[in-house]
Design goal:
By secondary structure, this protein is mainly α. It contains 20 helices and six strands.
Length: 457
């Protein structure tokens, strides 16, 4: 059944039908479409636009359709133009002319705008639940390894000592911001467009606030043109997903590095690794690599949405049918990535001794050596910096570290050194001393993890 067939004398070419159809994408909105239609029917009845008896029959008919779809008794017709056409057609089959009254004071334009909002509202809440779960795992791991010294890096070069817990909590902070972005996206999505009609509203005396309340929206759209043509919430959802994927990709890049033999800071559980068809020794971090790779797919979805919308005149244009495939793919991809990542992090083995050995070999306590001369001996930092640089060069020549270089060699470079320097450059001491808010001291890491877990609640 074509809802627009009355104007046309010829049937559409099958190729046109195939090209025009969106049922393969929008059929996932079946529950939301029925939910929106039930609220619309209830409002029509209570406002006296259709009689109460017909309103009740329509709602019961819609409930029956949903029950039959859920049970498998009714299959969605893949040849239908879209999910809205299928539902209305099935309702009319069951109720006759009463079913045809459902679309009173409604257009597919405001109907689809509603369905997409309802669907993305649910999807965003689901993603937020998964992100909270991931943050909780990071916090638990961070607490367990709050004192595990490891090298912190800049330019992928060993820089200063931190702890593994501190490193994990950096990702927890990123993901907290992701939660905030999804919350903001939901706020702007919380607008009910039904009642905008095709673009110019309707002459029927609708109670739009009633429909909004029935569907759990806090406000209604204030301009009918904008109500049907706004897809900011799709782009915002795709952006929120994209930035979250940036964070997951960065985390996965580090997991790939950390589980390599060159680092060997962690070992992934066998359940989240794969092997090689020819090299029996291999244990590959394929899950982390795939998550890293799928970020590009999500960025493409966002760019597709922005490009599709950028040149459209008001109000609805068929181009906007492309919104759902892009934003649903972005949402589904993030959901798919979070699903194995959470247990993969939960089950990974942390090799603290390897991290400590790597930290010892990188002169990452050089800044603390310079700070010793500044704080204990009163030297200007630039002088202390130069002296420490000379000590590092000497260590490299002799194959030593700042911890194993004899005190007499320290004194040859600067007479102000004494035995206290070795306590100052102890890696554990370097980390424990960084108690400034946000620093990697173990007590800070534990407090930060507790704070974040509290925020999740």
């Amino acid at each position: 059944m074509k809802l627009w067939k009355g104007r046309f004398e010829k049937e559409a070419d099958p190729k046109t039908n195939d090209f025009n159809s969106s049922i393969s994408i929008d059929s996932r909105m079946v529950r939301q479409d029925i939910e929106g239609s039930m609220a619309h029917a209830q409002m029509l009845g209570e406002c006296g636009i259709i009689c109460q008896g017909e309103s009740e029959r329509i709602r019961e008919g819609l409930k029956g359709i949903l029950t039959d779809i859920d049970s498998g008794a009714l299959a969605i017709d893949p040849d239908a133009e879209d999910i809205h056409t299928f539902i209305e057609g099935e309702l009319t089959k069951r109720l006759g002319d009463t079913g045809k009254r459902l679309h009173t004071a409604r257009s597919r334009n405001d109907q689809v705008a509603l369905d997409v909002r309802l669907t993305l509202r649910e999807e965003c809440r689901g993603l937020m639940g998964q992100i909270r779960e991931l943050i909780a795992v990071l916090c638990q791991k961070a607490q367990k390894h709050a004192g595990a010294v490891m090298p912190g890096y800049t330019h992928l070069q060993r820089a200063q000592p931190i702890t593994f817990g501190h490193h994990l909590m950096a990702y927890a902070e990123m993901l907290l911001r992701d939660l905030g972005r999804f919350e903001d996206t939901l706020k702007r999505m919380d607008v009910m467009p039904l009642g905008s009609g095709a673009l110019a509203g309707t002459t029927y005396p609708l109670d739009r606030e009633m429909t909004a309340k029935l569907l759990g929206f806090s406000q209604v759209s204030q301009n009918s043109l904008d109500g049907v043509s706004d897809r900011d919430f799709c782009a915002e959802t795709a952006f929120s997903v994209s930035l979250c994927m940036v964070h997951l990709s960065r985390l996965c890049e580090e997991l790939v590095l950390w589980c390599s033999w060159e680092y060997k800071f962690i070992e992934l559980d066998d359940a989240f690794s794969t092997g090689s068809s020819i090299m029996p020794q291999k244990k590959n971090p394929d899950i982390a690599e795939l998550i890293r790779g799928k970020s590009g797919r999500v960025f493409g979805d966002l760019m597709g949405l922005l490009t599709m919308m950028k040149g459209l005149p008001l109000a609805y244009n068929k181009d906007m049918q492309e919104d759902k495939e892009a934003v649903f793919d972005a949402v589904d991809t993030l959901k798919m990535c979070l699903t194995p990542l959470i247990p993969m992090l939960e089950t990974m083995t942390v090799l603290e001794e390897n991290m400590r050995n790597a930290a010892a070999r990188g002169f990452i306590n050089a800044t603390d050596c310079a700070d010793f001369l500044v704080a204990q001996k009163g030297l200007p930092f630039r002088d202390a910096y130069k002296i420490t640089g000379e000590l590092v060069a000497l260590c490299i020549k002799r194959g030593l570290t700042l911890e194993t270089l004899p005190l007499e060699d320290y004194k040859q470079v600067c007479a102000d050194f004494d035995q206290g320097v070795f306590e100052a450059i102890s890696l554990e001491r370097c980390v424990e001393g960084r108690k400034v808010l946000g620093g990697p001291a173990p007590e800070n890491v534990k407090a930060q993890a507790q704070r974040v877990l509290g925020l999740l609640k």
